[in-house]
Amino acid sequence: MAKIKHTKTELKAQSDALKRFQRFLPMLQLKKQQLQAEIAAITARIDEVSARETAARRDLSAWVALFAEPGKPLDALVHVERVNTGTSNIAGVTIPVYKGLEVTRAPLDLFATPAWHDNAAETLTAILSLKAERFALRQGQGRLRSLLLNDHAARQLSGVRQYGGGGVVHVARLLSDHRAIRA
Question: What CA–CA distance (Å, rounded) separates 80 from 3?
């Protein structure tokens, strides 16, 4: 615990700090809760997208052996032109939001290509879209987590550290220090 001088100047400084922390602590706690809730929601969404991608890959594996025949390779059926993303603001943090995927399909000759090439192109487009969505979600999750960690580190370095704890402990110690100075 930091050494506190028992002077009126120190009392005034501690009183001002106490008022400041009591005023801003609820707002900081709310922001932290919003970030944690959004991280949990994004994690659930990532799990959902991963499950859908796994299901699509499982469906693809049932007939992917058909591509062992000579012809067009599987990766030549679809070409990604661009991934469309937007932005969203969560508790003051700009995160990417997946909007869609623009792909170009290779032209198929109706008479020369087997019928399953259409299904393969659709499944590949779906898998690529899910991968792009998962990537955008992970980017947003990473930004929110880094802000949450940086916010915690900033509080640790900005003076809360001298009292050895988080904001709630800091306010409680400020109150007790305030009382000690007054006595």
Answer: 63
Residue 175 domain flag? yes
CA distance 167 to 173: 10
Q: Per-residue b/e over 157-169, b at no fewer than 16 CB within 10 Å?
A: eeebeebeebbee
Q: How far apart are CA 8 and CA 110, in angstroms?
A: 90
The tens-digit pLDDT sequence of the chain (183 residues) is: 567 778 888 888 888 888 888 888 888 888 888 889 999 999 999 999 999 999 998 888 777 777 766 666 667 778 888 999 999 988 778 899 999 999 988 887 777 777 777 888 888 899 999 999 999 999 999 999 888 877 655 454 444 434 444 444 444 554 555 455 555
Taking the CA atoms of the chain, what radius of gyration do you get in angstroms?
28
Q: Which residues pair with 80 in a beta bridge?
A: 103
Q: Tell me which residue of 57, 42, 72 sits closest to 128, measured CA to CA.
A: 57
State the residue range of the domain holding 40: 8-63+73-182
For the entire predicted model, the pTM comes to 0.69
Number of domains in the chain: 1
CATH number at residue 18: 1.10.287.3240
